[in-house]
Amino acid sequence: MLELKNLTKKFGDFTAVNSINLNIGKGYLYGFLGPNGAGKTTTIKMIAGLYSLNGGSIKLNEIDVINDPLKAKMKIGYIPDNPFLYDKLTGREFLYFSGGLFNLPKSFLKNKIDELVELLKIKDWLDKRTEEYSQGMRQRITIASAFLHDPELIVIDEPMVGLDPQSAHIIKQVLKQKAEENRIVFMSTHSLNVVEEICNHVGIINNGNIIFNDSIAELEKLKSDKNHNLEQLFIELTNEEL
Asked: pLDDT at position 240, please?
């Protein structure tokens, strides 16, 4: 269980995340929606342990992410919106480097890399330098590195930005598979169609406040009740102008 309790983040006088509360269980593929500047990435960076808090707490299976960060990070796989790779390393070298950060045994790491190569379809360019990679290739290597230690929580920020249809399809299928394996997937995205396609729970944040948090079935019911598509409903809930 991922528990956010009264989670608050301020930058000077600006409150980016305003005392939000979320409980996200195993098997959730949780789509986190919101307009630009709503607090999505700030929330994700707090969950990943990259930002300090101004209030509240974050717990993953009773481990406090802020007070016990190393133990928490061993159970979290974080994929940022802008993948960072070391350009002079090959994809395989980068994965071995990443595995070393988690103190994974070499025999386990080799088998895990072989498994992820097949899962993410990266064999053809795994031994090329990452400076030659397209955006989709960089994203898939970054996802592979985040999966090496079998994290209980996968935190991913805008996974579909700049991806070709093949890469997007592979990533969507992998995220669904991880949720089916009883992992928690927390995904921030602007892609409303992706949320409808693969997520089973949805949260919407606006101006730092959670304005919707329920199952995809309840979101579909709300759409039906209002005779809206998801774009129309999102605009209405966030008071965004067309």
From this structure: 53
